[in-house]
Design goal:
Chain lengths: 278, 306
């Protein structure tokens, strides 16, 4: 299995499209960091407009933690697209290029191949989130320095700088879990397709579409809504809410794990019996 | 010794379409076995089933005496294949492609073996170039190289000369013959060109619409059938008018300004030749005219009669 994973990683990192993801993450992080450096005061002014009469703000509000928190929001759409770009290609790309005929006539099992490809795709997703984390914290530290984090949602949460490292570690780890769900979904779609455009666009369309349906139709969906996976993709935010208990985070993790296992199981079941006609 | 390939009552249905229909065949050790049929006759589907890329609807495939469905690892490790067009990871070099495939086949001393097979197919000087820079002929040879990586006892080549120019086709035929004779590798080669199979194979099967029409020794099968032969005479019109008055008239099937076409048995060719020479007809050439389609028609006609 280790051999298969290393072969799949070699293939991933030999393709130019893989580096589009890393390049995009670098551009996104730099754009946000320098955007905040130039226009941060205006932006923070808008955010705290309604509360500045009731609070006295001291110290460095625009700091590396605020910037990193803002960058974490790219886990909604940007990073899923980049993950799908690679994982959506992993099975469909082989079908499209006809190389399944080469590898599936070797003495390897289809189940092992699917698992190896998924693990390699997962490693790519982890690296993508890791690069994002390292860059956002590293550049943030240089440009802005540390400070307390002010999170304004429907209430104001203020976190001391010495209470933040574990929260960010948790948020990024959760981000990896979310991207694993995205990877599993695009991997499933990839197993159905014979070219990679469909799975990539399909993954993004499903995430956006289901998010819209579950948001707009929350009342109609009722209790079903709490079992829809897109509701939990941005749940890294739970790490920055003072009243969110471990149970909420545990529930979000459980739902995502169920979807990951579900998507992967269907992929294996389908791919095992798939006729390779390409 | 067990046949290397034994197919028993194999069928594959895609919905209502019967791509392969109750097909049985046998490839013996040492054979160059021609797998002949027109486009869409079910050759590639059968080959894909032999390689476990497609699941049969019914029937059994035995490779080296083992049931493919039960002993996939054991059988595939003794088997190499090139299926239809040679597709590779175009963004990688030929060497890297072979190294990946070699690792999947657990080949020891891989770098040495990769060089060996690249040299065998004449691609060693271009081993470091990415495959996207290769011509179709080079890709075909690389396809054969990958099928040889793990020292297989049997290789399956699905239309390996497709799209190649005559020189490229000859190179592949020579390579196949040498692999069989010098390296003792049994070969199943599919084609829709009868001439190609006649050149290299010792046994063959002809299939159409997924069904076997005939299987056996190539020379016996080809020679057992009447064949079309064109005689090129110095004066076609005079020759035609003369022949129409003889017993050979019944054997003429058509003519044009340059050629008179006969449907005759192999043994009758020298008789007709001697007859024409004996009557002062100048013969410029005697050309065999034999397309697979005509061969099929003849076989199916014979089957109907019998």
């Amino acid at each position: 299995m280790r051999k298969l994973v290393s072969i799949e990683l070699f293939k991933i990192f030999s393709k130019p499209r893989t580096y589009i993801g890393f390049g995009a993450v670098i551009i996104i992080v730099l754009a946000i960091e320098f955007g905040i450096l130039l226009e941060g005061d205006t932006m923070v002014g808008i955010i705290i407009q309604n509360i500045k009469d009731r609070f006295i703000f001291e110290g460095n509000i625009i700091n590396l933690y605020l910037v990193s928190y803002i960058i974490l929001n790219t886990l909604w759409i940007h990073v899923p697209i980049l993950v799908a770009l690679v994982t959506g290609d992993m099975l469909a790309g082989e079908a499209n290029s006809g190389t399944f005929r080469l590898i599936l006539t070797r003495p390897i099992s289809r189940v092992q191949l699917v698992l190896a490809k998924f693990i390699a795709g997962w490693i790519y997703a982890v690296l993508l989130v890791a690069v994002m984390a390292i860059l956002s914290i590293g550049i943030g530290l240089i440009l802005f320095g540390p400070g307390d984090l002010l999170v304004v949602t429907n209430k104001v949460n203020i976190f001391s700088s010495n209470d933040l490292l574990w929260r960010f570690a948790g948020a990024y780890a959760y981000g990896v879990l979310s991207m694993t769900t995205v990877a599993a979904l695009s991997f499933l779609l990839s197993s159905f397709a014979d070219n990679s455009i469909g799975p990539i666009i399909g993954t993004v369309a499903m995430i956006i579409g289901i998010t819209i349906i579950s948001t707009v139709g929350a009342i109609l969906l009722g209790p079903v809504n709490q079992y829809i996976f897109t509701s939990y993709l941005p749940s890294w935010q739970l790490f920055f809410q003072t009243d969110s208990g471990l149970s909420s985070i545990g529930h979000a993790i459980l739902i995502q794990l169920i979807y990951i296992v579900g998507f992967l199981s269907v992929t294996i079941w389908y791919f095992r019996k798939k006729d390779i006609l390409s | 010794m067990d046949p290397y390939i034994e197919i028993l009552n194999l069928s594959k249905h895609f919905g209502q379409i019967r791509a392969v229909d109750d097909l049985s065949m046998k490839v013996l050790p040492g054979d160059i076995y021609g797998f002949l049929g027109p486009n869409g006759s079910g050759k590639s589907t059968t080959i894909r089933m032999m390689l476990s890329l497609i699941r049969p609807t019914s029937g059994q495939i035995l490779l080296f005496g083992h049931d493919l469905a039960r002993d996939r690892y054991k059988t595939l490790s003794r088997l190499g294949a090139l299926i239809e067009k040679p597709d590779f990871y175009n963004y990688l070099s030929a060497r890297k492609n072979l190294e990946i495939l070699g690792r999947l086949s657990n080949i020891s001393n891989l770098k040495h073996r990769v060089d060996e097979v690249l040299e065998l197919v004449g691609l060693l000087p271009r081993a470091g170039s990415t495959v996207r820079t290769y011509s179709l002929g080079m890709k075909q040879r690389l396809g054969i190289a990958q099928s040889l990586l793990h020292h297989p006892d049997l290789i399956i080549l699905d239309e390996p000369t497709n799209g190649l120019d005559p020189q490229g086709q000859k190179e592949i035929r020579d390579l196949v013959t040498s692999l069989n004779q010098d390296n003792n590798i049994t070969i199943l080669i599919s084609s829709h060109i009868l001439f190609e199979i006649e050149q290299i194979a010792n046994r063959m099967i002809i299939i159409d619409k997924g069904k076997a029409l005939v299987e056996g020794n190539v020379q016996e099968l080809v020679n057992s059938q009447d064949r079309q032969v064109a005689f090129v005479l110095a004066d076609t019109a005079a020759g035609l008018s003369f022949l129409n008055e003889t017993v050979w008239a019944a054997k003429i099937i058509k003519s044009n300004q340059e050629r008179i076409y006969f449907k005759i048995n192999k043994d009758e060719i020298p008789d007709l030749n001697a007859f024409l020479v004996g009557h002062k007809m100048q013969i410029f050439a005697v050309e065999p005219v034999r397309s697979l389609e005509e061969f099929f028609l003849q076989i199916t006609e014979d089957e109907k009669v019998s």
